[in-house]
Amino acid sequence: MEPIKLSSMVVYNSTFGPKEGEEEKKILYYYPENESLYKKINNIGLCEALVQFTMTLSPGVPCEYMHTQKHDYIFYEAEEHYWMIMVLSKPVTVTSDGKKATKEDQISTSACRVVLKEVYQRFHLLHGLFSYIVHFSGVSALKDKLLEFFKEFLSSLHLSETSVLHVFRGLMYCNLDNFTLLKFQSCANTIQSKFDTIKHCIITLNGHMVTSSLLEDDSQVIVSLCTEKLSLGKLSASRKPKIRPNKPMYQLHHGKFLSSIFQSGSDRVFITLKSGMIEQMHMLIYQAFGTTSVFFLDHLPTALIDICKELDACVGPLLSSLTSEIQFCPRINAENYESNFRHIFFNQQSLSLESTYDLKHSRNCTSSVPTDVMHVICDINECFSDHACQEKEVIVKVQNESWVAAKKANKKMLFVVINSKNANLIAVNEDVRRMSTHFDSMHFSD
Amino acid sequence: MEDDATILSTGHVTSSESVDVPSDFENLASSNSQNSASNPANPDIQEEVFVSADDQYVSDSALSLPGPSSDDDISFRQRKLTMLMTEEDESELSSSWKEKKSHIFVLTEAGKPVYSRHGCEDKLSSLMGVMVAIVSCVHDRNDTIRSIVAGNRKFVFLIKLPLVLVAVSSALETIHQIEIHLHYVYNTIISVVSLSQLNRIYSTQKNYDLRRLLTGTDKFLDHLCNSMDQDPQYLLRAVKCLPLAGHMRDFVGQSLQQSKTDDLAFAVLVSSGQVVSICRLKEHNLDTTDLQVLLNLVNASATSFHAGESWLPICLAQFNPSGFLHAHISFLDEKLQTCLIFLSADRDAFFTLCECKKKVVAKLNKHKCLEAIHLAYSKADYTVSKVGIPELWHFLYKTNNISQFTCPEFSVPYHNEKQRQRLFGLYQEMHGKIHNPAAPLKLHYSVSDEETLLAWVASGFELYATFSPLVTKNQAISAVDRLLRWIKHREDELFMMRTLTF
Amino acid sequence: MNGQNQARRTRISSSLSSTEFDVSFKVMVIGDSGVGKTCLLVRYKDGTFLDGNFISTVGFDFKNKMVEVDGKRVKLQIWDTAGQERFRSMTHNFFRNASALLLVYDICNAQSFVNVANWIADVKRYASPNVTLVMIGNKSDCSSQRMVKYKDGERLAKEYNIVFLETSAKTGLNVDLAFEAVAQELYNNSLTAADLVGSHKESFDLKNYVDSEKERSNCCG
């Protein structure tokens, strides 16, 4: 069976070519690039028509999906008039009588829409607003940036590996005890007060978030970028950092500063401040003692090496002592229970995410989530996230022997997946009750 | 059923608990599609077919395009679409019209309006033009549109050439459930014109205005659309029986048997929309959707049938999509509650059936069946309190093999219209989750501030139950246990367990 | 086929003997959808007017009405037909069995009057040659919306040599007359020469009878 495939990715702005014959001007990015101009224009025309059609019946609510027999079209209006469209082709199976049939819903389209939003956020982080680029550098500059961005992004996109955790767009926090966490936070404060140019900083440990002074959305994008580019997630598993072309920029006494993690060679990022303003900053990535820290500078000093040396001298010893005495708080993990228990904990407020699932979803991996369980979790999450939703507890049994139990209290959610032939509603409930006591801030009653 | 009941509490789930409900829906889809794919009455229409995800056959000769479309055709339609979009006069569509929870449109592949649930079709012709243009633009990509989602609004397309059906819904229904609604609408249209007549007309006249043939049918469709928003029978694809003592139901069945004549396919007795008994030819089953289409027709036109006898051609899509049966419809009481329906293949059988009716009525009177029926419907439904489980607020129970369901009348806290609709929405939602084609479930238990809901699909039945929000899981489970025993005990009264044959 | 129908008819007559009548006839009410066929019938049978929403007849409704003609009980079996196009072929099928046809148009709907010609063509083609045909212009109470003049109706009736009258199902004007005149005509036609011998009865002329009995509604043009 063919896996789900990206069949096209489009960015357009209808206002750029309003007249007939000028439709080409609407296209800002089109994958596959070698598609005929004629088809590109036609496909964008269809998308425009769909957006307008849905608007006539539900004004103010933009089009999100179109499902056809063979494709899923995912719509996202990233900025006013700027539409991003992702088209996925459904996997085709051949039935026993030789007919071709498309396999439905291999992947939740809502998870894919999250991916699409994340694509934009990444672009935004690296290049800023579409409209900003067009205003200051012209449409062709935006086209160039999109082309360059997607070239790199699409090569690393593996939709079939989209993990169930993706839909939460959460941050995997490090399970530190409060005291250690405070020390890390004070370390971050020290750095920011000592160095004028450093406006923000993020510290991660073994790929998990420890502290960040950025807004959650930006933190999430930066951590996921770093995780991907530096293979941080795997660090914990195989201690050995597998850093590919990223040669250290400066290898210093305590740790090392990494050169650009982006192929563009630029480490400038566009950070959204709490005020809503967007500010361009420079990113410095520093690794020492299993931690990865990202510093955001409002301007690059002429002598970069000097500030790096100063940082190493100041931060290195702090981190060294911190990491040596780290106290992890007890984490519920697979070892505590039988291996047929898995869980996801998500805090909508802090985006804090904790799970026994991996961020990377792999088809063959035993720890991977079955498609139907993934759908159930996505659906429940969607329901829990809806303000109108009254549900606070859901227990579900899927067709195979898995049970999914979910609870919501305040803005926190807990999902427990149990694979057990002999489970029943009462037993599952008992297991979930035991497990939820670990999340002491949640008061789940029966 | 007893065995199934213990599964929930003891936890031993056997493989026999396989769920066959999704296949019900597949049957619905595939049997319809077969009808459209192989049309014996019209052998000269050669249709190239391809298979969609749910084995739905769609004619490749769609949208009046001969063979594969050339680039010129495509760009012509694309331009037309763009033109239509810019021409769209929004002022025609009032905001109250837009805010309707559920719209259903039927149009021809040429974009001619056939039916609109709200508002006059003529005013919507430009909107329908856009719909058909979108359908054809997707078709140009050798693909078929299924649905569009915008926020909580879903646009669902069912392409049954020469017709295109579109639903726009902001209710909690799933796309899959809306598709099934569109199938009901389609079957109702077919019941009036028959598939072969439809194909015959459109094979020669692409621009035919179907409303000419459908005059007077709007009330069936309106009635159907309104019922689908509140009557669980369409959600469950099952009919409700009038609760009646088992021996009395047997008498009714035997009375119906008296009507046996040549070419009589089915005899049905209904009372206030609920089935009392059915008698059928040995070799033919009365499909549930066919029965529902028939009952909708009778209920929608109860006022126009009056107290006389009526004779009406009807095409039942599952029985034979290309031919008409003839329905002899008569009400047996002054209040137009109890209705006797004969379905015959003979178009000249009216007077013969008038005679049959007399025989059936005589037999019914002999056993005092009509009095019993009258008593049964004047008592109305039973209340949930009759079950004797205080935590249980309401339930829907469907027996899968005979496609019938039972439910108590709405009582506190679902005593007013608003609450009733909310509860129906919850049932729709649970049903949608349980029957999600991507992840069908066996059990769904959810707790909210207002109630606790349980949906459970087992081998022989489907149960949807609402409890007080304070119920514990143990209480809920023992309540379900007791409820299942209660239903089992009254099976003969609540359901028509046997259909007699002529 | 005809023989079969004949047999069926007699069988039915015999089985209906419980409700006493001397002779029975089949009468069909035909015409375009919405001209008021059902309303006419309801007015005649129950003496009421179906007000409010237009309820189009689905298929065929069948009702009995007893009339007394010359002291004999005459049973009219009246078919109310659906005017819609899709029932046309079934309607034709029933023409054969009808002894009398009441062809109705709506004086406020010019098209329904234009279609009278089509209906008459159908009658000629499908109905028995000695069928009694009466043309009725209904809704004569709606004078302000009148589209078909009384004279036009009269002229057309003359052309086809059929009986014509205007009725109002709302006010009841001429409704009973239409049905009773038909009953009388059918009854008289059914009498054989032997029946007439010695009865001293004048032959009944439907046209004269209707023309002398019918009331003209006010201000008809």
What is the level 1 CATH name of chain C? Alpha Beta
Task: Write down the secondary-structure element order of chain C.
Answer: HEHEEHEHHEHEHHH
Distance, first to last CA of chain C: 46 Å
Mean pLDDT reading of chain C:
80
Describe the structure.
The complex is a heterotrimer of chains A (446), B (502) and C (221). Chain A has helices at 37-57, 109-127, 130-137, 139-155, 178-194, 216-230, 232-238, 304-324, 371-385, 425-436, and strands at 5-13, 27-31, 65-68, 71-79, 82-89, 92-94, 100-102, 171-172, 198-205, 208-212, 248-251, 256-258, 268-272, 278-288, 291-297, 341-347, 352-355, 391-398, 402-409, 412-419. By secondary structure, chain A is α+β, with helices and mostly antiparallel strands. Chain A folds into 3 domains: 5-162, 2-Layer Sandwich (Beta-Lactamase), CATH 3.30.450; 171-324, Beta-Lactamase (2-Layer Sandwich); 341-436, Beta-Lactamase (2-Layer Sandwich), CATH 3.30.450. In chain A, the strands form 4 sheets. In chain A, strands 9, 10, 11, 12, 13, 14 and 15 form a 7-stranded antiparallel sheet that branches. In chain A, strands 8-17-16-20-19-18 form a 6-stranded mixed sheet, sandwiched between helices. Chain A is globular and about 65 Å long. The two termini of chain A are 44 Å apart. With 502 residues, chain B is α+β, with helices and mostly antiparallel strands. Chain B folds into 3 domains: 21-64 and 382-494, Beta-Lactamase; 72-229, Beta-Lactamase, CATH 3.30.450.70; 244-379, Dynein light chain 2a, cytoplasmic (Beta-Lactamase, 2-Layer Sandwich). Chain B is built from 18 helices and 19 strands. Chain B has helices spanning 2-10, 21-37, 71-87, 95-98, 125-140, 175-193, 195-204, 211-214, 218-228, 232-236, 246-257, 288-300, 302-305, 350-366, 369-378, 417-434, 473-489, 491-494; strands spanning 49-51, 57-59, 102-108, 113-116, 145-150, 153-160, 163-169, 239-240, 264-271, 274-280, 309-314, 325-331, 338-344, 392-399, 404-406, 441-448, 452-457, 461-467, 500-501. A 6-stranded mixed sheet of chain B has the order 8-15-14-18-17-16. The longest helix of chain B has 19 residues, at 175-193. Chain C has helices at 2-15, 37-46, 88-95, 110-114, 116-126, 150-160, 175-190, 193-196, 206-213; strands at 23-31, 60-69, 72-81, 100-106, 132-138, 163-166. A 6-stranded mixed sheet of chain C has the order 2-3-1-4-5-6, with helices on both faces. In chain C, β5 (132-138), α6 and β6 form a beta-alpha-beta unit. The interface between A and B is large, with 63 and 71 residues. β18 (391-398) of chain A pairs antiparallel with β16 (441-448) of chain B, so a sheet runs across the interface.
